[in-house]
Amino acid sequence: MYRGINDFKKGYQPTTNIINDEEGDLFTDSHSILARRRKHFNHLLNVYEVSDVRQTETHTAGPLVTEPSAFEFDIAIKT
């Protein structure tokens, strides 16, 4: 309701949707804009290039805290 009232008070304010392609050309029609966004996010989110697995390093997380001893278990249970 507040958005409608604010839009009515401000009057008509035209908006323009413009987007650039890879070469820098401008698109204004909705079909081209949607196609460009689809292509951009498809390229961004779907990575098909895989690096050589043999050259990657594997890091394992060792325990930062040592295992408690039986004596420490007994003290913890008693407290």
Q: How is this fold's topology laid out?
A:
Elements: H1 2-10, E1 19-20, E2 26-27, H2 30-45, H3 70-78
Antiparallel strand pairs: 1-2
Name some characteristics of this structure.
43% helix, two-stranded antiparallel sheet, mainly alpha, 79 residues, 3 helices, 5% strand
| Proportion of residues in extended strands | 5-15%
List segments where confidence is low: pLDDT < 50 over at least 5 consecutive residues.
none
- What is the CA-CA span between the terminal residues? 60 Å
The strand line-up of the biggest sheet is 1-2
Helix content range: 40-55%
The succession of helices and strands, N to C, reads HEEHH
Nearest-integer average pLDDT: 81
Shape: elongated
Number of helices: 3
User: What structural class results from the helix and strand content?
Assistant: mainly alpha
Question: Based on the structure, what is the oligomeric state of the protein chains?
Answer: single chain
Radius of gyration: 29 Å
